[in-house]
Amino acid sequence: MADPEKGLQTQLANIQKRSGKTLDQLYAVIRGSGLGKHGEIRDMLKADLGLGHGDANTLVHTYFKAQEAPGSSSPDEVLAAIYHGSKAGLRPIHDALMTAIHGFGPFEMTPKKGYVSLRRKKQFAMIGPASQTRVEVGLNMKGVPGTPRLKELPPGGMCQYKVSLTDAREVDGEVLGWIRRAYEGAGP
To answer: Alpha-carbon distance 130 to 32, whole Å?
Structure first.
């Protein structure tokens, strides 16, 4: 029986040879396109680089898989991918949040495919675009009454609360107070 991983590596080597570009260069073309949907990227690779359907499809799959792999990209590259295209205007909200949160003390930031996880001993917050017009901050904390701004979430989810922000000016004392409470509850 053929080894699927070996077949994939052979196909990727052939794509690089035919295109005259390394995988990193091909991934840079994808990132630079500003496209986020599989089919759009596949079609762009076929049109712009002359790749066949199968090669373009495989390249898109490996690109998305590489974006999900820990340590595969720098945090800046992952954030650029999260806040690209129609979501680029939300990056100042994210940056304002992170600037304030860094003042709380040490924590680990783990970029995921569509958001950033913030952890101490456990995850205390998740930050990412929920739509083209708002960033959501998911918070893990207990014993805080919900408000119209601090929405309580059903039990069993990744967070107990969420706050929606549409402008960097909304990163105020109230929001930062909730994030600090979650931060302090997540360990020393």
So the answer is: 22
Structure tokens at 162: 């969420």
**151 exposed, middle or buried (CB, 10 Å; 0-12, 13-18, 19+)?**
middle
Mean pLDDT of 33-39: 82
Q: Which two structure tokens, joined as six digits, stand for 175?
A: 């929001």
User: Residue 11's Cα: distance from chain center in Å?
Assistant: 27
Cα(101)–Cα(93) distance, integer angstroms: 12
Buried-state track 32-61, b at ≥16 Cβ within 10 A, e below 16: eeebbeeeebbebbeeebebeeebbbbbbe
Q: What is the pTM of this model?
A: 0.62
Torsion angles phi and psi, residue 162, rounded to 5: -145, 150
Plot region of 156 (φ>0 → left; ψ -120 to 50 → alpha; else → beta): left
Helix (H, G, I), strand (E, B) or coil at 143: coil
Residue 4: count of CB within 10 angstroms of its CB: 8
Sequence-separated (6 or more) residues with CB below 8 Å from residue 38 = 60, 61, 64
Q: What is the pLDDT of residues 113-144, one digit of tens each?
A: 788 889 898 999 999 999 999 999 999 999 89
Contact 143, 152 (CB under 8 A): no
- Taking alpha carbons only, the member of 52, 49, 58 closest to residue 11 is 58
